[in-house]
Amino acid sequence: MAASRMSRWGNELYSGARSYDIVGRRRTWFVISLVVLAASTGLLLLRGLNTGIEFRGGAELTISGAATTEQQPAIDAVTSIVGDEAPRVSSLGGDSVRVQTLSIDKETSDDLEAALAAAYEVDPAEISTTSIGPTWGDDVTSKALRALVIFLGLVALVMTVYFRDWRMAAAAIVALLHDLVITVGLYAGIGWEVTPATVIGFLTILGYSLYDTVVVFDKVRENVAPALDQRRYTYGELANLAVNQTLVRSINTSVVAVLPVAAILFIGAFLLGAGTLRDIALALFIGILVGTFSSVFVATPLLVWMREREPRVAEHTAMIHRLRAEAGATDGSDAGHERVHVGALVPGQHLGSRAQPRRRRPGRRP
Length: 366
Hints:
single chain, 366 residues, Multidrug efflux transporter AcrB transmembrane fold, Alpha-Beta Plaits, 2 domains, 12 helices, 6 strands
């Protein structure tokens, strides 16, 4: 029953029998996006990113088979060896503890391993130590930023060539930056540690958001191609039809993508304690939801806003509204002010089994 309703809802959206005025209410979506962007930027500036040891440098000690995963024994052990430094301690699973400190020499590292082994009642051989210099983190950061700039440049070039419209490329880039800033800001607000896996998650959501936006824009291009050659619908109405026609696909794609990520985040990280997965899972979880919102409520409304400032599109829109007003005055109705249900300019029909080739019976000539 639910599947039948979903299918009927999708068919009604595609045909125009049911429609949501997403493009027409673009001011509402822009205000929502600006408020969330401002909040995310504020969190990023006020709290900053909690960078991991890979970016700031230091030493990481992992205790396996610990009798307890409480953090206080590790804090006391580090304080007794290093001094007043406050280490970063986290639990990994049910019997492992990770301790991160500033850079220490070999002698201090040996003393700290012995203290942690005594605190958690394990053999010193069960403690692994890794030292990372700060230059490695700087190199990773610079390469990530460089990859982001190159990625955005290539996206702008390819979309401009593919759609033959720089405004589509500009709207897509704005949507990508919108997703990135909100995701990074919310991640900073939660305060989880930023690791290389987190950076991978940030870059991955750009590809997901871009894919969803391209799917919507492809339908927009198909619908608005004859927009200025007809007198039934405005450019914005045809673009809104495209958003409605791809709405079900956007929702289905988002649900399919977010369910396994949510399982990793909430079941794996919180219930099972798989701390090594929660950083990338959180970045993907936020990014997928924000990317779905931007592809539907930001990219296409922004594109329509830019196109309606072109003289030809503005004149065509004004002409459509004038013709509707005149038609309403002629028949005495209020047709000029009614909401128009937009349908496809060239409606299609699925023929089902009738579209299949007929089988020729044996022994009969064609």
